[in-house]
Design goal:
This protein is of the alpha+beta class. It folds into 2 domains: 118 residues, Probable inorganic polyphosphate/atp-NAD kinase, domain 1 (Rossmann fold, 3-Layer(aba) Sandwich), CATH 3.40.50.10330; 154 residues, Sandwich (Tumour Suppressor Smad4). The protein is 32% helix and 32% strand. The chain is built from 8 helices and 16 strands. It is globular, with a radius of gyration of 19 Å. Keywords: ATP-binding, Kinase, Lipid biosynthesis, Lipid metabolism, Magnesium, Metal-binding, Nucleotide-binding, Phospholipid biosynthesis, Phospholipid metabolism, Transferase. It holds the Pfam family DAGK_cat. This is Diacylglycerol kinase. It is an enzyme of class 2 (transferase). Belongs to the diacylglycerol/lipid kinase family.
Length: 296
């Protein structure tokens, strides 16, 4: 393995924390004897092209510095290769890093952990989801939660998490369950009225909402959480339990497991790792051991 590490940096992550985080992470890696190269890019497409070039050239690891969106972009370069992937999590949600047990908003600690893990060979294969040629690490979301994302992304004010809290309140006032058709890899088809359907490779999204609490990054299967035809009152009552993962005990919630799933519904957008994928229908498959992750 080469001693050069590539830092893949989002300078705008976490309201500017991405740019500030790169320096202490790089310092920790250099102190451990690694050479560090930084990739920024003029935009997402340019940054991804540069990251792919670094992987092709044999970088010792590709380390994303930012949030879940930056991790998602980095995975497009490193998934399906044997190049180790690391994460310096300084974004808003950081769900992938939390699922992996990595430090959050402590770039120096993350840099030290990555350096130690690379030296000690602590690199583990982890599953990823794939929709077409696009990889995702945590959750493919659709329904109420994706409509909150749609609305929040259209809002210019306020910024940060408050924007999505307000978007959620606005969607609650107007939302109705929609007809879904869910097709699993065993041929089972379910047609349901659902508030949301979440396809989980990882357990959480949205900064700690454990929508798929039983999801395991190493079992080759998705956990698919289906929240049925809830009223607004029921949704408000159940919502806080999502942070504990106990919502799956509610009678309106069903959990399915499959390596492949297609979800279909009209006028619903799918989001993976918080990034828009496009309108449903979408077909996802869980790829076992798709990426080698540096970590505990």
């Amino acid at each position: 393995m080469t001693s050069e590490i590539t830092l893949f940096v989002n300078p705008t992550a976490g309201r500017g924390r991405g740019a500030h985080a790169a320096q202490p992470a790089a310092s920790a890696l250099r102190a451990a004897g690694f050479a560090v190269r930084t990739v920024l890019g003029e935009d997402a497409a340019d940054a991804l092209a540069r990251a792919r070039a670094a992987v092709d050239e044999g970088t010792g690891a590709l380390v994303a510095v930012g949030g879940d969106g930056m991790a998602n972009l980095a995975l497009q370069a490193v998934a399906g290769t044997r190049t180790p992937f690391g994460m310096v999590a300084v974004g808003t949600g950081n769900d992938f890093a939390r699922t992996l047990g990595l430090p959050v908003r402590d770039p120096a600690a993350a840099g030290r952990l990555i350096a130690d893990a690379l030296k000690e060979g602590r690199v583990h294969d982890t599953d990823l989801g794939r929709v077409g040629d696009h990889w995702f690490a945590t959750v493919l979301a659709s329904g109420f939660d994706s409509r909150v994302n749609d609305r929040g992304n259209r809002m210019r004010w306020p910024t940060g998490r408050l924007k999505y809290d307000l978007a959620m309140l606005a969607e609650l006032a107007a939302f109705r369950p929609v007809p879904y058709r869910i097709t699993l890899d065993d041929g089972q088809v379910r047609e349901v009225e659902a508030t949301l359907v979440a396809v989980g490779n990882g357990s959480s999204y949205g900064g700690g909402m454990r929508i798929c609490p039983g999801a395991d990054l190493t079992d080759g299967l998705f956990d698919i959480t289906v929240v049925g035809d809830c009223s607004r009152t029921t949704l408000l009552r159940v919502f806080p339990s999502v942070y504990r993962g106990t919502h799956v005990d509610h009678p309106k919630v069903t959990v399915l497991r499959a390596a492949r799933v297609e979800i279909a519904a009209e006028d619903v957008t799918g989001y993976a790792d918080g990034e828009p994928l496009g309108p449903l229908p979408l077909s996802a498959r869980c790829v076992h051991g798709a990426v080698s992750v540096v970590g505990p």
